[in-house]
Sequence to fold (414 residues):
Amino acid sequence: MIASLVGLLLFMDFIETFSFLSLHNRPSSVLRSLSSEQMEKETEPRNPPDGSYSYSFWSKAFMSQEQEFDYKIEEIIGELPRSLRGTLFRNMPALFERGETDYGHYLDGDGYVMRVVFDGLGGATFKSKFVRSREFESEAAAGKVLFRSTFGTQRPARPVSLFGQEVDLSNVLDLKLKNLANTNVLYHHNRLFALFEAGTPYELCPRSLETLGTADMSIGLKEGLAVCVPALRRALPAVHDAFFGEYFTAHPKKIGRNLVAWTTRGMPVPGRALDTNPLLEFIEWGDKGTLSTPPAHQRTRVLLDKTAVAPHDFSLTPQSYVLVQNRMGGDLMPYLTGKRCPAQCISVDTEMAMVLSIVPRPIANEPNALDTTQMGTRSTATATATIQEEQTREPGRFFGAGERLDLPLSPGFT
Fold:
């Protein structure tokens, strides 16, 4: 049973891609050590005209912004078009320590949502707030790290040796990850959501940015370990669903008036202990004025059997969902024993080429078949670029990133 539980580890993405953001050298401490003269020098000009790189300048991205703001923007370089009227929402990590503990990775920072409102008269206002998740509030009250995070932050270690195996008593067998709500923001039908790769969305008030709580997105989305244990679910569905949940992608898309997203959970691989494949369920919400429950025919399940890690992103065409299966796996034992965070346990099989997968959208009225093609690249992909499907009588002709790909689709797909 424990072997199936820990499958959630393998959903953490962009590990290799963002390894350069690791805080193991404690750049926040470096920032504290910068003299005021150095800081002043680095802020003028804001962008060096010669394009030179400055460590101290860029390391300011790791400085915590502990304040929340609400003000009219007085300093505007140039002029805002008077035709510009609307609201821009952004989300990012902004707090990188609790008490005396620096977070171990930039992407473990607590989520911070910003809003810029353009009034259509050449003016703008700014407002910002932290996403006050349950974990954020608990750690704020305690003044210390209480939860394990994805990339490199967890409770202070208490190493001991048990039966010849070194374990960390502070974190051993604790598989719950902190919902950082720091990756993206979604505004849909007058509702605002802060998104995170390994958790459920948090809903915010679009006007005040106050946190309202977790959101099930009208699909029964629930928190919990993102693993499915088929035998237990068939025998005791209520018990299964009390312990297990699913993750909601941090990178939904819109096409026409439809919102498209997917959820993911791990499916154990038969005969391979601790291994899982990601089960994705693509969901489309139509334009009904609310985030209403989509009908069953607008939900598409796909098992990705060429990878152990769910994709970070996907592309969308009028006919298809397009995603990359990175050839990732890992050793779960350091995570189980509490010695390492899950992303630190991921490895990339450099001998295997990535796989491009194409899933017909339900709007195409085709079976939910998965078609794949092997790519020549032995690497990993994180965000996906725009992909377009040629409007011809020949389906499956895609081009993106400057390269045209002629890909097979399901038999009978027209």
Q: What stands out?
A: Confidence is low (pLDDT under 50) at residues 1-45, 364-370, 372-380, 392-414. Residues 156 and 170 are 7 Å apart (CA to CA).
